[in-house]
Amino acid sequence: MTSLPADASALLTPSERERHAAYPAQKRRDDWLLGRAAAKQALRELCLLLGRPEPDYLELTIESAASGAPRVRGLDPEPALSLTHGHGRAAAWARPTGREGGLVGVDLERIKPRPEGTLRFYLHPHERAWLEALDPGQPKEVAPRDVAAIVCWALKEAAFKALQPPRGTGLLDVELEPAGDLTAPSGAARVRYRGAAAARATLLGVGEVRGGWSTEGDLVTAWADAPGGVLPPLEE
Ligand SMILES: CC(C)(COP(=O)(O)OP(=O)(O)OC[C@H]1O[C@@H](n2cnc3c(N)ncnc32)[C@H](O)[C@@H]1OP(=O)(O)O)[C@@H](O)C(=O)NCCC(=O)NCCS
């Protein structure tokens, strides 16, 4: 992590300050600010990695496309960026698009009991079967089945975000092929898109997508690497 200004809100540009102030809940404001801090750090580190001058926080603005996806102002060419915030934490990943890199997605989720009835909204029957083979534990207790359910959720959210899809796209358009145990503290998976997401991945030039996760305490961070992808139009 690069160092943050003592007053973290000082890293926001005027339009970002306005947006920040408009969130009514303090917790939401704090998490949103952490997300912007993580994103701007990732962008500054990317510039250093590419041998470019490190921009000041205030030279970078992170806007939202109509889809809600984050878009970067202040760097040319615009890099791909994904960010996630919640539970007092944030993570972000930035990198060049196209042949030099591709699109990216990150997601942060808390491991907690996951009601069985919610699984069908984001898991296909064969994916639910992996979970059904795991210990369901007692109600309201975190069991291996919950861990795997949250890992799948985070991986799918990350893969979803990589495509920056318009509203209306769902997680059932993302299919997972885990490389190992979904209850392990870290791991990898192949991602396949279906339906509208598959068409979008082709349109954006995305190659074979790989995902991964890592757990720290009760938080899972997942990422998806969509190589070769280019950014969609801002107005989507
Ligand atoms: C948009 C979505 C991915 C956000 O995820 P989340 O876990 O609620 O929140 P996170 O903190 O991880 O991520 C929020 C960030 O995602 C990014 N984001 C929002 N929409 C996005 C999109 N269409 N594409 C890429 N990134 C997006 C934004 O940067 C946002 O932060 P910001 O508003 O501060 O800029 C999620 O709400 C969603 O719509 N998921 C898929 C749809 C679905 O099927 N949901 C329900 C199934 S039961």
Overall description:
It is a single chain. By secondary structure, the chain is of the alpha+beta class. The chain folds into two domains: 8-96, Ribosomal Protein L22, Chain A, CATH 3.90.470; 107-227, Ribosomal Protein L22, Chain A (Alpha-Beta Complex). It has helices spanning 14-22, 26-49, 125-132, 144-162, 195-203, and strands at 61-64, 70-73, 80-86, 89-95, 102-110, 174-178, 186-193, 209-216, 219-227. A hairpin with a 7-residue loop joins β6 (174-178) and β7. The mean pLDDT is 94. The structure holds coenzyme A (COA). Coenzyme A (COA) is lined by residues 32, 35, 64, 67-70, 83-86, 107-108, 121-122, 157, 160-161, 164-165, 170-171.
Write the layout of secondary structure elements.
Layout: H1 14-22, H2 26-49, E1 61-64, E2 70-73, E3 80-86, E4 89-95, E5 102-110, H3 125-132, H4 144-162, E6 174-178, E7 186-193, H5 195-203, E8 209-216, E9 219-227
Antiparallel strand pairs: 1-2, 3-4, 5-9, 6-7, 7-8, 8-9
The protein binds coenzyme A.
Q: What labels would you give this structure?
A:
236 residues, 5-stranded antiparallel β-sheet, 2 domains, Ribosomal Protein L22, Chain A, 26% strand, single chain, alpha+beta, binds coenzyme A, 5 helices
List how many beta strands DSSP finds. Answer: 9
End-to-end Cα distance, whole Å, is 32 Å
Q: Average the pLDDT over all residues and give the rounded result.
A: 94
| Count of all domains | 2
Proportion in β-strands: 25-35%
What is the N-to-C succession of helices and strands? HHEEEEEHHEEHEE
Oligomeric organization of the protein chains = single chain
Could you describe the largest sheet, including whether it forms a barrel? 5 strands, antiparallel
**CATH domain fold name of the largest domain:** Ribosomal Protein L22, Chain A
Major β-sheet strand ordering: 5-9-8-7-6
**Cα-atom Rg, whole angstroms?**
18 Å
What molecules are bound to this protein? coenzyme A
Identify the overall geometry.
globular
